[in-house]
Amino acid sequence: MTLRSCLVLGSLLACGWTAVGRADDAQPVTLRYHFQPGQIVRYDVTMNDDYRIQIGAAVDSPYSHNHSSKHYEVKSVAPDGSAVLVLTIDAIQLEIFQNGGKIKYDSRNKETAKNEPVFLALEDLVGKPHLQLIISPRGAVSNYQPLVAKDQVPSDPATAAFDVLVALPEQPVKVGETWKEAFEAAVNLTGSEVKKQVKMQRHYTLTSHENGLATIEIKTKILTLLEDADEEMQLLRRTPCGTVVIDTQRGLLVSKTLTQNNEVTGFQNGASVITFKQLQEEKLLTEQAGVEAAPAR
């Protein structure tokens, strides 16, 4: 796969989703998501991926910047509060810079895909449901069903779940308290198609709870020892840190701000280093956050 294709796919996957009243910081809060049948929740997303690649004396600084809108629709809700969610990317604007050249894509302008075949995959994705999940009130995924080609969606439920909602603690928590989420990521062993399961962990801290808004800090760690630069490259984009804000009265994710600043050395023969920086900002479109009538089928 070319780097340009990787930049498109990374942007594609990125587009790429508890509950009490007002409480002061001293009181424990039960964090839960609330789902209602027919509910449609929309988000505005900005993601900037910036690379610096040095091989010997040659330096390149490719990037992929995108702005998108997405939503999830609640198809049904079980007695335990778990919901079937269907995810859709509504629109995307994408700009890629590589090898001194810049290309752009706008899903609202079909001509942009015709000019660059690398964008044709987006035409089959944008504006159509692409993933169905069953998610618990704590954000745990119990079912994962791609609705498009599998290479157009995250390959594992942990990534898909984190792209939609973050994991919430089982017990009530006070400000300053933490909880953890264990998951695994698969990487190919160097020179082989054999998969290696890498243990990873997300560490969450409730940093504030004011006026019905809970702010949660997120850190992601790789726990398994990686053997070489090839394995590190496969996880280059997998350790985001940042904050999310949850509306504890409505049980909605209000905003998400994540960053990454990762580096891998020796990924090619000779002196080589790649630096990856990412900024992802996701905001709830509040005027459309309530229950909406599901479109007629």
Order of helices and strands: HEEEEEHHEEHEEEHEEE
CATH architecture: Roll
- Anisotropy-based shape: globular
Supply the helix-strand structural class.
mainly beta
Helix residue percentage? 10-25%
Sheet of most strands = 13 strands, antiparallel
What's the tally of helices? 5
The figure for the number of domains is 1
What is the terminal-to-terminal distance? 38 Å
CATH fold naming: Lipovitellin-phosvitin complex, beta-sheet shell regions
> How would you state the average pLDDT, rounded?
88
Strand content: over 45%
Rounded to an integer in angstroms, the radius of gyration calculated over CA atoms is 20 Å
CATH classification, class level: Mainly Beta
What's the assembly state of these chains? Answer: single chain
| Secondary structure tally: strands | 13
Unreliable residue runs: 16-23, 292-297
List the helices and strands and how they pair.
Layout lengths: L2 H12 L25 E16 L2 E3 L2 E15 L5 E16 L2 E6 L4 H5 L4 H4 L5 E7 L5 E6 L10 H8 L13 E11 L6 E16 L2 E10 L6 H6 L6 E7 L4 E14 L6 E13 L13
Antiparallel strand pairs: 1-2, 1-3, 1-13, 3-4, 4-5, 4-6, 6-7, 8-9, 9-10, 10-11, 11-12, 12-13
Pfam family, one: DUF6263
